Amino acid sequence: MKKNFYLFRFLIIFTTFYFLTATTSYATKLPDYVLNTLKNDLPQSSVRFDGLITLPDGTVYLPVLPSNPKKNPSGKIVSTYPSNKKLSQLPEVILFDSNFALLKVIKNKGGKITVADSKNIPFVVKTGLFPQDMLVPPGLIIPEDMKIMMGDLKIATTNSSVNEIFKNNSGSVSSDKQTKFVPVPYMTGKTLLVTTLDSKLLNVIPADSSVPKFTLTLENLPKFVQPVSDDDYILIATAGKTYIDVADVKQEVLAKKIDIGYQPSEIILDNKLSKAYVAAVNEHAIFVIDLKTMSLAEKIKVKGYPKNIAISADDKKIAYIDKNTDDIYILNLDGTYLNSYVYNASNVSKIVVTEKNVYLLSRTLNELQVIDEEIKDIIYKQEIGKKPVDMLYIDNYLYILSAAGVINKFNLNDFSCETILKLPESGFFKKLVMVPDSNLILITNVSDKKYYVYDYVKNSVLQTVETSVYINDLKLLNKRLK
């Protein structure tokens, strides 16, 4: 009897894996009819890259892939538990006419998370399989007679590393200081993710507060922190690690590790927000991350060791500097990946690339240099504020920040430049952070505990915010975290 059970289990898993690899519908996403049903009946639901379904109220559904899928399904729901329930009523078991199913994550009488009692789950569902790359909620209890559905999927414990990042360390945050204030319009409801130079903590600061609401513990000093996918996830790379952690903001877990084999150092997003391009510490390559599947899509071999990577507004090319030689290269993203040398420059702090030109900031020469990509030489130089450190490309203008507290505005149409703002003398200014869908830019000060809210249309600092932490890097979420 035991031998027959294992044979049956092998056949079920083999059949399901064959189905997974033989068709694409279930490999990386849920079937279209399921997605359409969710869109119509639960429009606020979101589907994670591994198939996990989350609702705003915290409800979670696990997809179950059928071992014996029916052909030509209509996508009709044929049964639920409790019976005769609509999807909008959030039943515990949902079975489609293809034998695809959804199981709701619930709590038992002891407060442990589990699924419906197995006697209420149709046999055809029990012979299915969870997606093998899915991270189920840590601590999930699966009934013994349903363990076959797990395949090789592992369930993390409630105190496993997948939860470490979202452990609340609010006890380390000082509460003896007035923290609340009224933010300017367009900043209300947003959250700042702040890292420092010497701490493994990621400070989570609401836009109406000057101190962290809580801190998230990283594995090591951060190399980058990057919100993606409508801020549902945060990509995190730390020193000494070869992988990128994918933090699920809604589920408050580390949902995945994307291992690129080398230590990630920088990240940029394409303008469609569908891909991330990652440079590594010691590799002649730029790695492409697919933000829909949260997986490594491609490794592009390039010349030199890329740093200061920048992408053009049309997503057609990337410019970067070889950290060993200071040579500047252009990588075409048209599929040919033609990698061409442009110019050699030293002490470059920032690059912007357009259709024909590369714009770079020289920290030692205190100037903006315009490089023509075709003739491979400087065609224009412009003196700017001392120690230029960052710039943003907005509506055919460059807004350039100098560490000394000067903002220059450079017109790309006629190469005219003006000093439009002189910030307070104190401190070392470092970054310009665009606030989406607004005229606002956040300006950080790495030596003083503060940042500025600047309106580039009005050319005015609207608000100065003192914080309880030094700001080395800052990213903005268009939502509040719990």
What does this molecule look like?
There is one protein chain. Helix content is 7%, strand content 41%. The model is unreliable at 1-28 and 171-176 (pLDDT under 50). It has a six-stranded antiparallel beta sheet, with no helix packed on it. It has a four-stranded antiparallel beta sheet with strand order 11-10-9-36, with no helix packed on it. A four-stranded antiparallel beta sheet has the order 12-13-14-15, with no helix packed on it. With 482 residues, the protein is mainly beta. It has helices at residues 2-22, 32-41, 123-126; strands at 46-47, 53-54, 60-64, 77-81, 93-96, 101-104, 106-107, 113-114, 191-195, 201-206, 214-217, 222-228, 233-238, 243-248, 253-259, 264-269, 275-280, 285-290, 295-301, 306-311, 317-322, 327-332, 339-344, 348-353, 357-362, 367-372, 377-383, 388-394, 397-402, 406-411, 416-422, 429-434, 440-445, 450-455, 460-466, 473-477. A hairpin with a 2-residue loop joins strand 28 and strand 29 (397-402).
Concise synopsis of the structure shown:
With 482 residues, the chain is mainly β. It has three helices and 36 strands.
Strands, helices and their partners?
Blueprint: H1 2-22, H2 32-41, E1 46-47, E2 53-54, E3 60-64, E4 77-81, E5 93-96, E6 101-104, E7 106-107, E8 113-114, H3 123-126, E9 191-195, E10 201-206, E11 214-217, E12 222-228, E13 233-238, E14 243-248, E15 253-259, E16 264-269, E17 275-280, E18 285-290, E19 295-301, E20 306-311, E21 317-322, E22 327-332, E23 339-344, E24 348-353, E25 357-362, E26 367-372, E27 377-383, E28 388-394, E29 397-402, E30 406-411, E31 416-422, E32 429-434, E33 440-445, E34 450-455, E35 460-466, E36 473-477
